[in-house]
Give the backbone structure.
Amino acid sequence: MRKVQLGKTREQIPVLGQGTMGIKSGKDKEYYEKWKASLRRGIELGMTHIDTAELYNFGASERTIGEVIKEYGRDDVFITSKLFPRHLGYNSMLKACNKSLERLDTKYLDLYLVHFPSLGFSKIKKHMRVMEQLLNEGKIRYIGVSNYSIDQFKEAQECLKKAEIVTNQLRANIMKQKHIHNSLPYYKKEGIILTAYSPLGHRGYTNLKEDIKSKLEQVAKSHNATIQQITLAWLINHENVIAIPKAFQINHIKDNAAAANINLTETEIKQFYTE
Ligand SMILES: NC(=O)c1ccc[n+]([C@@H]2O[C@H](COP(=O)([O-])OP(=O)(O)OC[C@H]3O[C@@H](n4cnc5c(N)ncnc54)[C@H](OP(=O)(O)O)[C@@H]3O)[C@@H](O)[C@H]2O)c1
């Protein structure tokens, strides 16, 4: 699996990781075993970056991942989780991170993101103080944000004393290109990674309009790939972009990992530009 540098750190991160927003709570054993098998297969195929959040189904996602990563060396996986900024107090935010660590059954998170810029009274400055404390305590290795505008990103960075924010996780895919055209140039210039969430449009592009579908099919045919693989390749063929597709089905996991090897030409990339 191709890797890229994570921000200005020495860390190398796979261009494709695994999203886990779909893991539901309260299901039967077979359901969780199937999820775990998919996550394992993804790890074995090099998608060692696993994305989760305290918000995802009342911790079911973090708990399931915790059971899987125990089977690997801790250094062999890269775990991202997210603080849901509804915790108003400083201490309750620290506690939220501890709970994520407990559910994941790990001593540290590789990357911790603030899930949204601010909700009500919970503000960027306070979030960044929490993040920096967690970093200093060794509970998280890197700080990131999600769903931040460029101005909010700059504000967050200015609130940090020493640490540098390594990524902004944003919705970006072939049908939602706003951040690729408007935000990516800034992140590239600053050496920051744009992590594309919902890279397959959340539903796996089963209902695309005929014009885009037929264009994708043409490119897919020439690369002996599926249209979903082309949409993932389209994202990660942009410099400074990594993506975290979610896949429950093992055949999807295999296809996604293989998409990391698809090199699109400049012309193939640009023909899908909508702006
Ligand atoms: N920061 C944020 O605010 C935020 C917001 C949304 C999402 N996220 C993160 O981003 C991750 C991914 O986004 P997402 O869950 O919205 O959806 P997504 O990855 O865009 O799409 C998931 C859908 O695509 C299907 N799929 C996956 N690989 C496929 C393939 N190779 N061929 C055909 N279909 C395929 C999946 O099917 P199966 O599951 O049946 O295999 C599922 O239905 C989330 O899980 C989460 O970790 C973050």
User: Anything to note?
Assistant: Strands lie at 3-5, 12-14, 18-19, 49-51, 78-83, 109-114, 140-146, 165-171, 193-197, 241-243. The longest helix spans residues 29-44.
